[in-house]
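Example is below:
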Amino acid sequence: MKLLKTILFLFLISVVSVQGQNNRRNDLVPFGDPFIMLYDNVYYAYGTNAGDGIEVYTSDNLRTWEKASQLALHKDNSWGEKWFWAPEVYYIKEKNKFFMYYTANEHICVATSDSPLGPFVQEEKKPMLDEKSIDNSLFIDDDGKAYLYFDLFNDGLNIWVAELENDLQTIKKSTMTKCINVSQPWEEVWPRVNEGPFVIKHKGVYYLTYSANSYESQFYGIGYATATSPMGPWTKYEKNPILQKPEDLVGVGHSAMFRDKRGQLKIVFHAHNNQEKIHPRHMYIADVTFTDDAMPVMQVSQRITKPEVFRTEYKAAEGDMYHNPVISRSLPDPTIIKAKDGDFYLYATEDIRNTPIFKSKNLVDWSFVGTAFTNETRPNFEPKGGLWAPDIEYINGKYVLYYSMSVWGGEWTCGIGAAVADKPEGPFTDKGKLFRSNEIDVQNSIDQFYIEEKGKKYLFWGSFRGIYAIELADDGLAIKPGAKKKQVAGTAFEGTYIYKKGKYYYFFASVGSCCEGVKSTYRLVVGRSKSLLGPYYDKKGKNMMDNGYTLVIGSNEKFVGNGHCSEIVQDKAGQDWIFYHGVDVNNPRGRVLLMDQVKWDKDGWPYVEGENPSLSAKKPVF
């Protein structure tokens, strides 16, 4: 019987995994010839897709992307009328302009804009060259000299370079020089194609990445050549290609490189829709590194990131059942409230920048409402900090959103603030910080939780440096004058949530590592007390001040790193439900939203069936 249950469990995992992969496949960014630019802490992606211009998508994390409402470049603002291909966009600080280099009607063009979203406009509607050419790419050397790389249709496709005038829009035709053409055996599956150039400089060496074979071929791939001058001569890497048919992808090519927010060099490229179908091609990302050899070798990671299009609606229910994850986006540290309008609103740590807000009537079907803040209204007491672990409350007729603000490792500068709104969807007005770690003398002052008791308002907080509590002022937006902090739990915990049921206060928290992907050891635990301020004990009677705890939710073969729970909410049948985040081992990109029913044993202790996340379960009653 035990073996049968194990087989059934693994079968369900495979079914859910395949369904999830199919859903994700339909939601990939539909770009051929992709290019990514990081500007003002936002990623912008451009690519070949639209028939009447160039589209742009934006992202805060490279995993989920939102399509802009308008084209970045429309054909009305361009010389060409069709075949808008291979865009690249650069911000030129000296000119305070964004330059888009692209192909139209199989001729290279350039347009400019004051915004990365466009509209990009050609100042003079004409191509940069009269002869047939595609795939232009800008490179500006350390001395400020600008070069344009592009493909010419002479004896197939081959790659050329030329210097640009100071306007960055005019080619110095006298400098036009051929770089590379088909010359290696791997390039002869579909001969006479070297295209999609992109150049970077590393330790004094110029690296020219390119694609070979037709984009229609499953053997489309990426190679590179090196030179000691941007004009060449170029020597192809003898072990090319560096990327061809990785994982389950075919038709891999037309790449560009960029650095992410942490400075990691990345390569973005496209691949075919699937093994049988070319279009629409999709955008993918991988890491790029160099060896320490005298002539460093460029290496592309075979672990591929598959960016998704931002969806606004998520349906996890089928019939009487729902499936985890309830939302497959990264929504760490969730908090939830049933608002005065009768709907549920959920907020999370800002993997979606500026604190995402989702809305639901039944806890399983969610729609994206927007964000609590904008770039202009977001809190700034930690200028480079992220907004973490929100806690939503309704206090004195206002929706109050407590938040943590920190940078990684900033355990003495992080702190806790609050914002207020008249409606659960905002807009929220920041009221500033309550305190920082160095002001209240509690290291790592994050992960706050608000609770009222006998007319008094309290804030609990802390992360692996002890959990503390303090009384707040009547408006909940400041510490009560004269109030003293009290430690209520030890150094094993973070993500506090306290729930009153019967004569006990139940202290939920998380232990272990939250943020190491599939290696995360996070798990949800509990203790209880007859007093809000403790002492709290686990089932065996060990004090939580001594790091005692009882497990509520651990890991299984599908989800790991499960913890940092929301408030408990009830359905119409009186059943208790709790949200928390976890890592999907089959798709470990961020921390997805999970939900399970909380039950209570005969001694009054909370538990979740099997002490791990469900794959499917009966949905809440509404």
In short: The first helix runs from residue 2 to 26. DSSP finds two helices and 47 strands in the chain. The chain has two domains: 28-308, 313-618.
